[in-house]
Amino acid sequence: MATITRDEIYDKVRTVLVDALGVDEDEVKPDAVLVDDLGAESIDFLDISFRLEKAFGIKIGKGEMWPEGLANDPNFAQNGRVTPAGLAELKKRMPHSNFSEFEMDPQVAKMTKLFTVDAVVGFIEGKLNTAN
Amino acid sequence: MRWIWIDKFTEFTSKTSATAIKNVSLAEEHLHDLYPAFPVVPHSLIVEGMAQTAGILVGEARQFAEKVILAKVGRATFHRLVRPGDTISFSATIEQMSEQGASTRGTVKIGEDMVAEIDLMFSHIDQNLAGLEFPEHNFVFTEQFTELLKTYRLEARIGV
Asked: Å from A127 to nearest chain B CA?
């Protein structure tokens, strides 16, 4: 299979996000947070997954790109904060996200900040590399 | 009044596509609310008709085990008005489907005239809204919806 560069992945991801979220191309920057900066709501994550599957010819399993259920597990989150075990789990499940800011104040409400454009690109890159 | 905006199915292929029609009557109250002396079907109700056509298609794909909720209107482009005496045809196809929901593409026509193109997303709410509990019974697919499909299948079987 022909390899695809990170820039090419980024271009396709940007098109997906523009179509799914109705944002302008120039709003889709690598560090843009899907919820805070691009206005994504919960159903948009399913829409984005469907569009990514189509754009890249891949299958994305439930909870694979966006970890689910973690905030409701007392081992991983207590009193509105992600526990150290939760943080380790998040890092395992989201190896493409940047945790430097989040781990200083790991509030459950701030978990959405881990979902950046760059994290999506990294996820796709990892997925395509595994497939190859 | 029953909240149902399609009259009957004319085609239904499980997990794939469905077409339903609605005959628009001047007697319908809502036609008179938008413009005085110029009755038209509001676009929002055309979207609802598509949501019911596509929603039943999505629900049937899993034998109505999921609570299927219209979650997003990805696109709704309208090309002409719908007026009393028109027969609207809603055609929907399932584009993608997963444990969590489905996306559908749809066209709305009167005869060969394109009325609208409507793409929707449906959520299987029990699979998506973690932490929230919903009633066990399927409050989405009430008898008025499932009867539509039963009637179509019965008529198809007896060749009506």
From this structure: 18
